Amino acid sequence: MNINEALEKLNKSKFRSKFHLSKKDIDYINEKGFDKIREHALDFISKRLAPAYIPNDGEQTPMKGHPVFIAQHACACCCRGCLNKWYKVQKNIQLTEIQQEKIVNLLMAWIEREYENYTR
Prior knowledge:
- This protein is mainly α.
- It has helices spanning 3-11, 23-32, 34-48, 67-74, 80-87, 97-119.
- It has one domain (3-119).
């Protein structure tokens, strides 16, 4: 499944499609820029989602506070349970760098679309 297919499928989910960036998120993106947001996404994914064992899996991603957190929930990349359900990513194994990059690319695509829709 490519990014556009994933975003289309996620948009059909009543739960996933309810997530949107707020004005505060848009302001944060304007202040930091997309490159910095991508850096944050890489950091969050490597520390909070990539490890084989996550002690608070299912509760590690806040529902607000950063555009990447919102994107993680919108894209079902918030915990290993959601990754497994939506993308068949096996639990209890370390995510590869390629897997992490794919997740970040999906999150950034969602953020960029939200940003474009908000600023039109």
